[in-house]
Amino acid sequence: MTHTFRTSLLASELRERPVVGPDTVVLGIETSCDETAASLVMGGNDVLSSVVSSQIDLHAQYGGVVPEIASRAHLETLNPVIARAIVEAGIDESRIEAVAVTIGPGLIGALLVGVSAAKALSVAWNKPLVGVNHLEAHLYAAFIEDPSLELPLVVLLVSGGHTMLVEMVDHGRYRLLGQTVDDAAGEAFDKVARFLGLGYPGGPLIDHEATLGDPTAIRFPRAMLHDGLNFSFSGLKTSVVNHIRQHPDASTADVAASFQQAVVDVLVAKTVRAADQIGARGIVLGGGVSANSQLRTAFQQAGHDAGIRSFLPTMAMCTDNAAMIASAGWYRLRSDGPTSLSAPASPNLRLPLLGAG
Ligand code: KG4
Ligand code: ZN
């Protein structure tokens, strides 16, 4: 009884908007998939610490992320990861002004570990909670590393679950320009890698294999290349499978390089077209697939050729981390104030889009 009263009292206290400024330190927590991460970020982009514990080795033997194993590993690892982030930041935990956590999209069991921990800390420290959309956080990765980026920007958000072209009109204001109509780019990398027997996770393994092959060896289809800003990758995946069935002796490196080139060509061409259409000040990469070396080279070259500024996050900022959560949390806290302590984890959360109710 007493406990319930105390929690609701805190929730009402914390709805008051705190002052959010350049000195405001936010703890970010990320547990949406297979990385357990915590980070302290000051003023939205000054990263004081960023700790990431990857579960890749735990899932590799199953060829993909096993949700139950992910949740258990987050439970075991999260507290030490948070403790390390605070120690590495070199500041007292009393300096933390808010607790930001990924509330979705992601695996429900995995998300719940982070959300529960963040709520507990929010109550224990009497500091506001900020629920962060994981996709929005990927958009913020670029701002952490280059706060001078000018809006509007076109962001190519390419991860294991999403492939989107987003116009960042302003902080927190996004317009969807295009998206995949079937598989996400990362999903295509993972499926083709599995078919080629390269293992998991597929993206980095194809990336490496491709360095040994000829990207012009096989002319795989570039679906919808001249047709709008949407993407389709499932036909490409089928083409790769058919090619290997018809040519069992084909070089794995050539197939990997040619597949990768087909994905990169479409992603880059559509990003530049989108930037041209909206008169963007720059183009930015985000999400796990932005670690791809061929995509990075082609993206930068295309920006240069089109006379438009391009920005590539560092490798550490491409894949899942908590610095991007703390950063997006700082901006959300400033614009919207704290999130209710009763907010649920939302496995199917979408990017908040302008004009989308
Ligand atoms: O953003 P992320 O870490 O997790 C999600 O939110 O999905 O993205 C993971 C995806 C996986 O599909 C992985 O294969 C892909 O990013 N990926 C890559 C590379 N590194 C990671 N894809 C292509 N090339 C890479 N070097
Ligand atoms: Zn991600």
Task: Explain this structure.
It is globular, with a radius of gyration of 21 Å. Strand 9 (282-286), helix 10 and strand 10 (309-311) form a beta-alpha-beta unit. It has helices spanning 2-14, 56-60, 67-89, 108-125, 134-145, 185-195, 202-210, 234-246, 252-278, 293-306, 315-318, 323-336, and strands at residues 25-30, 35-42, 46-54, 96-104, 129-133, 153-158, 163-170, 173-179, 282-286, 309-311. By secondary structure, the chain is α/β, with parallel strands linked by helices. Helix 6 (185-195) packs across helix 7 (202-210), helix 8 (234-246) runs antiparallel to helix 9 (252-278) and helix 9 (252-278) runs parallel beside helix 10 (293-306). Bound molecules: 5'-O-[(R)-(carboxyoxy)(hydroxy)phosphoryl]adenosine and zinc ion. Zinc ion binds at residues 134, 138, 159, 287-288, 320.
How are the SSEs ordered, and which strands pair?
Elements lengths: L1 H13 L10 E6 L4 E8 L3 E9 L1 H5 L6 H23 L6 E9 L3 H18 L3 E5 H12 L7 E6 L4 E8 L2 E7 L5 H11 L6 H9 L23 H13 L5 H27 L3 E5 L6 H14 L2 E3 L3 H4 L4 H14 L21
Parallel strand pairs: 1-4, 4-5, 6-9, 9-10
Antiparallel strand pairs: 1-2, 2-3, 6-7, 7-8
The chain binds 5'-O-[(R)-(carboxyoxy)(hydroxy)phosphoryl]adenosine and zinc ion.
5'-O-[(R)-(carboxyoxy)(hydroxy)phosphoryl]adenosine (KG4) binds next to helix 6 and helix 7.
Summarize this, please?
Helix content is 46%, strand content 18%.
Quick tags:
single chain; 357 residues; alpha/beta; Nucleotidyltransferase, domain 5; 2 domains; 5-stranded mixed sheet; 12 helices; 46% helix; disordered N terminus; binds 5'-O-[(R)-(carboxyoxy)(hydroxy)phosphoryl]adenosine; binds zinc ion
